Amino acid sequence: MKWVRIGDIIVLNRDVEDPERFLEMPGVRGVLLVEGISGPLRRPRVRVLAGECTETIHRENGCLFRIDLSRVMWSRGNINERARIPGVVEDGETVVDMFAGIGYFSIPVAVHSNPGRVHSIEINPDSFEFLKSNIKLNRVEGVVEPHLGDCRSIAPELDADRVIMGYVGTTHHFLEAAMECVNEGGVLHYHETVPENIMFSRPIKRIERAAHPRRVSVLDRHIIKKYSPGVWHVVLDVRVH
């Protein structure tokens, strides 16, 4: 059995006979079992095993995130990447977060960097509600501008020095919109789940195809985590010339 604490809630990956024992931990108010994620909006299917709490405030990397785990997925595997990105954002940059969720990347960038503007796009109305709440909670209303809707229609209307594509599954379907958004010399952070034998070759080919006739150069690349047997979640930082 694996478990993780998110705010004052314990989240399990499988059922247990005595979930109430977790309520004895200091500050824990609820125990949940995540049974899966469904649909293009990635809505969680959860079961409350103990306590009555599904909403919490989670602290990560000096930022606060209000979230209801029965309505919105918390992405646990990207913690190192969420800490890395604010360190590469340059002063005054306009950042577009194409899959903002509740602000996983947008909030740390606004809190720990000095961007000119962060445009946070989210299509899930539940996630968007928490995104707006987290902008206020972290007092970055003057920096982060939330947008509700499909990033394929919203991003091309924006001009970005840096584009964050922190979503996996069908991320390559959104590359053309990202290329319409990113300025000359801008940077793209592109996430993808890839079979091990083409771990970095397929993502760069997809990026080059979407960027044509512009050129791209790889600045950095990272393995985020193992996604499934033989498949890895990776991110590439590329500059678009």
TrEMBL record:
<dbReference type="InterPro" id="IPR056743">
    <property type="entry name" value="TRM5-TYW2-like_MTfase"/>
</dbReference>
<keyword id="KW-0949">S-adenosyl-L-methionine</keyword>
<keyword id="KW-0963">Cytoplasm</keyword>
<keyword id="KW-0819">tRNA processing</keyword>
<feature type="binding site">
    <location>
        <position position="75"/>
    </location>
    <ligand>
        <name>S-adenosyl-L-methionine</name>
    </ligand>
</feature>
<feature type="binding site">
    <location>
        <position position="122"/>
    </location>
    <ligand>
        <name>S-adenosyl-L-methionine</name>
    </ligand>
</feature>
<dbReference type="GO" id="GO:0005737">
    <property type="term" value="C:cytoplasm"/>
</dbReference>
<dbReference type="GO" id="GO:0102522">
    <property type="term" value="F:tRNA 4-demethylwyosine alpha-amino-alpha-carboxypropyltransferase activity"/>
</dbReference>
<dbReference type="InterPro" id="IPR030382">
    <property type="entry name" value="MeTrfase_TRM5/TYW2"/>
</dbReference>
<keyword id="KW-0489">Methyltransferase</keyword>
<dbReference type="InterPro" id="IPR029063">
    <property type="entry name" value="SAM-dependent_MTases_sf"/>
</dbReference>
<feature type="domain" description="SAM-dependent methyltransferase TRM5/TYW2-type">
    <location>
        <begin position="3"/>
        <end position="241"/>
    </location>
</feature>
<protein>
    <recommendedName>
        <fullName>tRNA(Phe) (4-demethylwyosine(37)-C(7)) aminocarboxypropyltransferase</fullName>
        <ecNumber>2.5.1.114</ecNumber>
    </recommendedName>
</protein>
<dbReference type="GO" id="GO:0008175">
    <property type="term" value="F:tRNA methyltransferase activity"/>
</dbReference>
<keyword id="KW-0808">Transferase</keyword>
<dbReference type="GO" id="GO:0030488">
    <property type="term" value="P:tRNA methylation"/>
</dbReference>
<dbReference type="InterPro" id="IPR030867">
    <property type="entry name" value="TYW2_archaea"/>
</dbReference>
<dbReference type="Pfam" id="PF02475">
    <property type="entry name" value="TRM5-TYW2_MTfase"/>
</dbReference>
<comment type="similarity">
    <text>Belongs to the class I-like SAM-binding methyltransferase superfamily. TRM5/TYW2 family.</text>
</comment>
<comment type="function">
    <text>S-adenosyl-L-methionine-dependent transferase that acts as a component of the wyosine derivatives biosynthesis pathway. Catalyzes the transfer of the alpha-amino-alpha-carboxypropyl (acp) group from S-adenosyl-L-methionine to 4-demethylwyosine (imG-14), forming 7-aminocarboxypropyl-demethylwyosine (wybutosine-86) at position 37 of tRNA(Phe).</text>
</comment>
<feature type="binding site">
    <location>
        <position position="82"/>
    </location>
    <ligand>
        <name>S-adenosyl-L-methionine</name>
    </ligand>
</feature>
